[in-house]
Amino acid sequence: MTSPKTAGATDAAPRWATAALVLADGAVFWGKGVGAARHAVGEVCFNTSMTGYQEIITDPSYAGQIITFTFPHVGNVGTNLEDVESINPAARGVVLRGDITEPANWRAAKPLDDWLRSHHLPGVCGVDTREITRRVRDGGAPNGVVVHAPDGKFDIAKYTRIAQDWPGLEGMDLAIEVTAKQSYQWDETTWSLGKGYGKLDNPRYHVVAVDYGAKRNILRCLANTGCKVTVVPATATAEDILRHEPDGVFLSNGPGDPAATGVYAVPAIQGVIDQKVPIFGICLGHQLLALTLGGRTRKMERGHRGANQPVKDLTTGKVEITSQNHGFCVIPESLPANVEVTHVSLFDGTNEGLRCPEKRAFSVQYHPEASPGPTDSHYLFDRFVEMIDKSKK
To answer: Fewer CB in 10 Å around end: N or C, the chain?
Structure first.
């Protein structure tokens, strides 16, 4: 294992190295290759979760990013066909501390290394992920290139230039890359031991979910509350959404700069608000709702990514342990007087939620469908249905 202090951009690769993480400042972390034999450029971030690596890698919100896992042992439970949040992972690559181990789990269908190759995702293991995490924490998320070269040949100068030339996530609309290409129906409910996923048979309400990069388990949680779900692409207009005659509209998570996605998303959301249809948003959907209501967003220096993020619900005084994945946040001071801040991060005080009762809209920055609490945040889906109930009455 090496660090950039002992392996600069002009150094030859160690004889044992078959992969590297090359940062835009010329730092190189040598390691062993995993996954696909190729290179990929992106923003280097870190995730503090101890479990759920397959869900993390398949979360569309990681589009454009290289994920550094801070937990040292990744791959030990293998992969399966159920624990995926999307069919085609949008992450650019992975960085790991330890070698990928053989899977030891009764649900495993394929080792992580094989699964990464099948999805053309490159990775590097055996690097000092603590050093990378400190760099992101102290200096912000850098651009980088993860390269897996089984022949041990690396053009570090080339990869450094690629990292330097990559424009970064600010100003980038990535929702357009991960959204559904056409509308579809969703009726699958949450997973249970011995039964797998269920199916909604008798829906109470009809919810249109705008897919900016929606995770499957979010759709399952909506179905679990008794809502038939119609998923529409991120570019859907207000007319596209409202022609389905929804009882409520859900704004999904997603990647990229909300200001860039907001160019087409904000007019659509405003059109829904004008018709007084209840709205619930999470993650990117939260940021887009804030923009629609008159607020602003900004790029964070390091973002929030992990399953141990404490958030306080100011409306109840309760603290939730939440799962998060975002690099932009809402500026609370920019929100108009009729918009109330409902949740704040206990890590750094950033905004984690808002509501506008007169517009029948609320949103949170984190992922309430995930289970780090494990069910601390599931009440938000019930809150959405209660809002629909009131609007119908």
So the answer is: C
